[in-house]
Amino acid sequence: MVMNEVVVVIGAGSIGQAIARRVSAGKHVVLADLRQSNADAAAAVMTDAGFEVSAATVDVSSRESIHALVETSTAFGDITGVIHAAGVSPSQASPEAILHVDLYGTAVLLEEFGDVIARAGAGVVIASQSGHRLESLTAEQDAALATTPADELLALPMLQPDQVTDPLRAYQLAKRANSLRVMAEAVRWGKRGARINTISPGIIITPLARDELTGPRGEGYRRMIEFSPAGRAGTPDEVGNVGALLMGPDGAFITGSDFLMDGGVTASYFFGELAPH
User: Fold this and answer.
1) In the annotation, is 171 catalytic?
2) Shortest CA distance to 56 belongs to which of 48, 185, 74?
3) What pLDDT score does 214 carry?
4) How far apart are CA 153 and CA 244, in angstroms?
5) Does pLDDT of 208 surpass 80?
6) Which uninterrupted H or E stretch holds 84?
7) What per-residue confidence (pLDDT) applies to 207?
8) What angle do CA 155, 156, 158 make, to 5 degrees?
9) Catalytic residue at 269?
10) Quick one: average pLDDT of 130-139?
11) In what order do the strands lie in the sheet with 195-201?
12) 86 Cβ partners below 8 Å, 6+ apart?
């Protein structure tokens, strides 16, 4: 019996789907989202495009839920791809929720899927430009975010409620932690012959980004676009192109890396019109 190769997509949004379309031909896609209706809708779109897809639910703030997704996915075959594109934004959630979903949840996903990823498999975690605009942390803080066991992460002193009171700061810390965590996990995934990287997108036009652009931080987001070297927002397909490189044979020498693709917003933040005064 020939086992399927399985690509697991966590987060049924535009970016996860864009990457999956480029790397999942001939493989079984398990598409998971917090809401079954979102997973079903995305699965229907991909099925109509010729992919073999199963829809599932997952709560990335829960180890039990993530482990159940691993069990569901391995029943279809060998997991050769993991695309983690689920998360909440600063306009959507409290600092506590952001740290539970975006920081703790990503750490658990890397641990759980790192235990089963197949040889020559690859994963991509969607981080954010925001992680690049957080001030430098100490070497000890970087190491703690990268290597503290996931179930102990939220007890770190730097992540306590009196230290993280703003949703944006929680988001920046979570996304910085994602790239650090992936760097550390690349060592462990490498022992299985697999690779893992992060992509840190800027403003990509998705339903979530539209919420941000019209929300309380909208003026700042519009300013980022106006004063970025690219002068525009990005598209999910552009992130999909980078994801395909990182997960495919052309990216076979790339692991433990973070790819910032923000149209130059971060460059402008440090050296251009967006620089804080």
Assistant:
1) yes
2) 74
3) 85
4) 30
5) no
6) strand 77-84
7) 80
8) 130
9) no
10) 95
11) 52-57, 28-33, 4-10, 77-84, 122-126, 195-201, 258-261
12) 10, 11, 13, 16, 33, 34, 58, 60, 101, 105
User: How much is the pLDDT for 3?
Assistant: 61
Which is nearest to 201 in space by CA: 219, 183, 178, 223?
Answer: 178
Q: Of the residues 104, 175, 221, 269, which is catalytic?
A: 175
- Residues 125 and 259: their CA atoms lie apart, in Å, by 10
- Picking from 261, 254, 161, the residue whose alpha carbon sits closest to that of residue 201 is 261
Nearest-angstrom CA–CA distance, 172 and 128: 8
Longest CA pairwise span in the chain (Å): 64
Q: What's the pTM value of the predicted model, to 2 decimals? A: 0.96
Of 27, 104, 171, 221, which one is the catalytic site residue?
171
What is the rounded distance in angstroms from the CA atom of residue 37 to the CA atom of residue 56? 10
Closest CA to 259 of 19, 5, 12: 19
Q: Which domains does the chain have, with CATH numbers?
A: 4-271 (3.40.50.720)
**Token pair belonging to 132:** 């690049």
